[in-house]
Design goal:
This protein is an alpha+beta fold. The protein has a single domain, classed as Fructose-1,6-Bisphosphatase, subunit A, domain 1 (Fructose-1,6-Bisphosphatase, Chain A, domain 1, 2-Layer Sandwich). The protein contains 5 helices and 10 strands; from the N terminus they run αβαββαβββαββββα. The strands form 3 sheets. Strands 4-6-7-8-9-10 form a 6-stranded mixed beta sheet. α2 runs antiparallel to α3. The protein is globular and about 75 Å long.
Length: 235
């Protein structure tokens, strides 16, 4: 074997090893990136998802007519409706979250229906940041995270045009414990009163920071549902 041939073989081996090294390290880096998620970025994505879902709810409401179906009755015997707005919001919210975090677990109150007909803008590269908030981030393994969404809370009220009660909601749980909540009111007209969010032991939206405490904390506040009886617990 000539010297030239040996040099050629040696160079080929070096190139092959270099390619394998780069590929292996890139794969490991990708795996690490995919396995860990910034909760701060996930909060931002949750906010955008709630807003995108709200836009779909508004779009359906603005139609001349929309279909109202029934999922059955609640245990109290009240009709439990579902509308096109529920499905469209579901598709938009799930799509936007999975587009940003493809491996994340998302559980919705609704099921997918004609999602291929819903066009949602990609929020992966243009989600707003929270620079105005001094928030310490947390990096969490993706297997420990579950995102729960309600694409349209208060569907019955939505069908009755009681729009002040309509919301889209996102809950982020870590190891089964809820740590982040987002509520968006798509029909709210008051300034700074449509979006609310909270991250346990980290931060809350500014409109929650300025809430005044009751002068007399002994006066109870009761929140009731038209569809579910619930229970009142005295402390």
């Amino acid at each position: 074997m000539s010297v030239r041939t040996r040099k050629t073989i040696f160079c080929g081996i070096i190139i092959l090893l270099s390619v394998l090294y780069l590929y292996t390290n890139r794969t490991l880096y990708t795996d690490l990136q995919d396995k860990n998620i910034s909760l701060k970025l996930l909060l931002i994505a949750a906010i955008k998802a709630a807003e995108i879902g709200g836009s779909e709810v508004i779009a359906v409401h603005n139609q001349a007519k929309f279909e109202i179906q029934s999922k059955g009755k609640t245990k109290e015997g009240i009709n439990d409706p579902v509308t096109e707005a529920d499905y469209r919001s579901h598709c938009a919210m799930v799509h936007s979250l999975l587009e940003t975090f493809p491996s994340i677990t998302v559980i919705s109150e609704e099921t997918s229906k004609n999602c291929d007909k819903i066009t949602v803008s990609n929020i992966k590269n243009n989600i707003n940041n929270l620079n105005d908030y001094d928030i310490k981030d947390e990096i969490i393994n993706i297997n420990d995270i579950t995102v729960w969404i309600d694409p349209l809370d208060a569907t019955k009220e939505f069908t009755e045009n009681l729009l002040q009660y309509v919301t889209t909601m996102v809950c982020i749980a870590v190891k089964g414990k809820p740590v982040i909540g987002v509520i968006y009111k798509p029909f709210e007209t008051k300034q700074n009163s449509s979006l609310f969010w909270s991250w346990t032991n980290h931060a809350v939206s500014r409109n929650l920071q300025i809430l005044h405490k009751l002068e007399d904390e002994k006066i109870p506040i009761l929140i009731v549902s038209q569809s579910h009886a619930g229970q009142i617990i005295m402390f």
